[in-house]
Amino acid sequence: MQIIIHIGVHKTATTWLQQKLFSSHPEINLINNFMYPWNDDLISYLIKSSSFSPEYCRDIFEERIKNNTNKTIVISTEEFIGHPFSGGYNKKLIANRLSQVFPDAKIILTIRNQADITYSLYQQMVKMGYLGSISQMLNEDFWSRPGFRNEFFDYYSIYKLYTGLFKAQNIGVFSQEQLKSNSEFFIKNVCDFIGVDSTKFKLDVKPVAKSLSEKKIKAIRFMNHFRNTEYNPYPVFQIKNKVGVKVMVKLISLLPFLGEQKKIYEELHKRKIYEFFRKSNESLFNKVPLDIETKSKYY
Fold it and tell me: What is the dihedral of CA 79, 81, 86, 89, to 10 degrees?
């Protein structure tokens, strides 16, 4: 029985892989709840347990697959490398737990150039309740708790972490840019690595999440001041009516004076992000086979 663990990274077509390939390929059994990982006892135990037992975790896994051992087993959640807003402080702990329970598993690491992924992450955080600007997200310096750090998207450090725990030939690195530019080649490479037949998958590269306009993101960020969220747990005044919040977001997004965070990001931060990861990306590309066109998207 082959076990595949897909660890993310966030915003690298992970949801597309989960909803399209892993959920529909007839030779793959995606065994976890990827939409709500905290409601999945296997994922929750691997990540959150304070007194971890590999044997108990294996029991949870065996119970999950007892009637589905004839397919390739896939466990997929980007939460395995932690959350970007916490800086992925627990990624080493989780990687060690995975290696204890599934020492012979294959690991899928999906990547995307850090300059694009950073802004995409900012938009996602705003939708989740984040109050700050893109500059605040990139420049915040917490001393009493974990926070977002550029290093979260250092793919070479993730690669080294997992090659230190699993066989190097069992680590597969795949680029989101390749999915967009040559989807059939991307799918074939992933399927070959997993050990399933790519011709049995009906290719559908439509995005599973629609991106929002800059004005809508700005409007959501304003309304976050009146929402109870993880990023704002104690709003001074809370609008509990979800329909009311949606109406306000739509009205505010129509205002002509809303500034665009993307323009600020591209003018002040984007080039710095490219340069920050240049050496790390070069080190990774010396280890994994990616075509020249794909590599060029990372500089």
Answer: 140
